[in-house]
């Protein structure tokens, strides 16, 4: 039976069991490597407070409006992003070209998971490394060497990438309620507990105040134009918007849930976790005389050094990487969902098989990322284009998804909801009245697109 009918999931009763279940799933998607790995290191690289302020502004101006629009489109279409967009271009009487939003979603979520899984595999590997006590008393060379050694080993990376994908496929294959909701209901509370333990520990380092200062007292002389662009790009990445993931999750959202309020809750929780992750990490960095601007290696190279020196470091190190792993899994399952939803509808294969075949294809593409860190480290496929010189397969995929497909997808979603959809649809899904409706439409039509356009153009230059 083909599911491709309007609000198919609503009719089949295949929905999140409650508003809370949706919030947890969406927060699980939003909270990921972006919050715990990327946010602290880009904050460190960009000098702290001023960057954090700009990032918060971007969440408000771009992140929340696109999140609302994307979930709204998802629920109104009620199917996979491709089918939902096809449906809506018909029922809203818009141009067919908008359907590209759906295809952009399926393709981008496919691609992003292919490399996200490899990094998720690092988290998996590091849970074991931390638990084995190998960081205890190790010096910077040994710890840097362990990280480098892992990247250099095709076999290790392949193994962890495979295990990570298998976990994701097993959860998604069991379906929205019995697979994803169950896993998420268990993993999210665990994530919050681990995070609070880490922040609690950070308050005992004596450098908590310094970290708060670093993150919250803005020094605008440290902010560059590039920093502003990084902040905006990250606001989209961290909220999982622009590539159909929130649209797919929205397609399982019961009709009586208030989208606006829910989206704002999700954005607050995601931002809260990013800030807490900063408050867990920077005190350790300062207490151990490490560099906040150490870059992507911040949590894999710098933090183990701190764990190796502190009392209880084996436990806290293991907890920390477990936290990272949990966050990565709940994001990864959301990336697989649009692909699986599409396979179920269009290829008529059942959910378990869709998850398996989709997951396998993604795993295969992920091998390209695995090799980018070792055998193909010197392979630069698009080196003939000056801008892409020196970019590995992984760099190219990351660039394509994070810098092109996500912001452009977000822009298209804002424009579609803001300009192309009929008022009736917006009213039925959002139920905003009077001034609130006008304010929201103003942001969605003008501010959000302008914000994204600026980043996008600068990114390209
Ligand atoms: N938001 C996730 C993170 O912060 C990443 C993500 C991007 C998830 C796009 C789904 C879709 O890690």
From TrEMBL:
Q: Which GO terms describe its molecular function?
A: symporter activity
Signal peptide span:
none
UniProtKB keywords:
Membrane, Symport, Transmembrane, Transmembrane helix, Transport
Q: What is the membrane topology noted in the UniProt record heading this document?
A: Multi-pass membrane protein
Q: Which Pfam families does the record cross-reference, listed alphabetically?
A: SNF
Gene Ontology CC annotations of this record: membrane
The residues that cross the membrane are 20-37, 49-69, 105-127, 157-176, 188-208, 228-250, 262-286, 306-333, 354-376, 396-421, 442-460
Q: Where in the cell is it found?
A: Membrane
Xref: NCBIfam families = Na_transp (NF037979)
PANTHER family associated with the record:
TRANSPORTER (PTHR42948)
What is the name listed in the Swiss-Prot or TrEMBL entry for this protein? Transporter
């Amino acid at each position: 039976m083909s599911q491709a009918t309007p609000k198919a999931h609503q009719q089949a009763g295949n929905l999140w069991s409650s508003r809370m279940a949706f919030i947890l799933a969406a927060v699980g998607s939003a909270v990921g490597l972006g919050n715990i790995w990327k946010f602290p290191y880009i904050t460190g690289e960009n000098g702290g407070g001023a960057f954090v302020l700009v990032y918060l502004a971007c969440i408000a101006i771009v992140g929340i409006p696109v999140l609302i629009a994307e979930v709204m489109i998802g629920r109104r279409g009620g199917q996979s992003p491709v089918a939902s967009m096809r449906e809506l271009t018909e029922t809203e009487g818009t141009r067919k070209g908008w359907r590209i939003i759906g295809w952009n979603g399926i393709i981008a979520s496919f691609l992003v998971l292919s490399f996200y899984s490899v990094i998720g595999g690092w988290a998996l590997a590091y849970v074991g490394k931390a638990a084995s006590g190998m960081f205890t008393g190790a010096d910077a060379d040994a710890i840097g060497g362990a990280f480098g050694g892992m990247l250099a080993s095709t076999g290790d990376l392949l193994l962890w990438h495979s295990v990570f994908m298998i976990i994701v496929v097993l959860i998604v294959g069991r379906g929205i309620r019995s697979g994803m909701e169950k896993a998420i209901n268990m993993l999210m509370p665990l994530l919050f507990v681990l995070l609070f333990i880490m922040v609690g520990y950070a308050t005992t380092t004596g450098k908590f105040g310094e970290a708060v200062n670093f993150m919250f007292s803005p020094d605008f002389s440290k902010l560059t134009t590039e920093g502003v662009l990084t902040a905006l790009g990250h606001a989209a990445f961290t909220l999982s918007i622009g590539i159909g993931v929130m649209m797919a999750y929205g397609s399982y959202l019961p009709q009586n849930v208030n989208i606006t309020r829910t989206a704002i809750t999700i954005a607050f929780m995601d931002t809260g976790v990013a800030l807490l992750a900063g408050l867990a990490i920077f005190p350790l960095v300062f207490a151990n005389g490490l560099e906040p601007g150490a870059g992507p290696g911040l949590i894999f190279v710098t933090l183990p050094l701190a764990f190796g020196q502190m009392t209880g470091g084996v436990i806290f190190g293991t907890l920390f990487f477990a936290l990272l792993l949990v966050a990565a899994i709940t994001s990864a399952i959301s990336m697989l969902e649009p692909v699986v939803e599409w396979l179920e509808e269009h290829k008529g294969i059942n959910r378990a098989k869709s998850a398996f075949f989709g997951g396998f294809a993604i795993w295969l593409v992920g091998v390209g990322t695995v090799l980018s860190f070792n055998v193909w480290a010197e392979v630069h496929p698009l080196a003939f284009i000056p801008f892409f010189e020196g970019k590995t397969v992984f760099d190219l995929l990351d660039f394509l998804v994070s810098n092109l497909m996500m912001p452009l997808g977000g822009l298209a979603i804002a424009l579609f909801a803001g300009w192309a959809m009929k008022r009736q649809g917006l009213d039925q899904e959002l139920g905003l009245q009077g001034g609130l409706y006008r304010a929201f439409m103003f942001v969605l039509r003008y501010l959000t697109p302008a914000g994204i356009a600026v980043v996008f153009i600068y990114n390209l230059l």
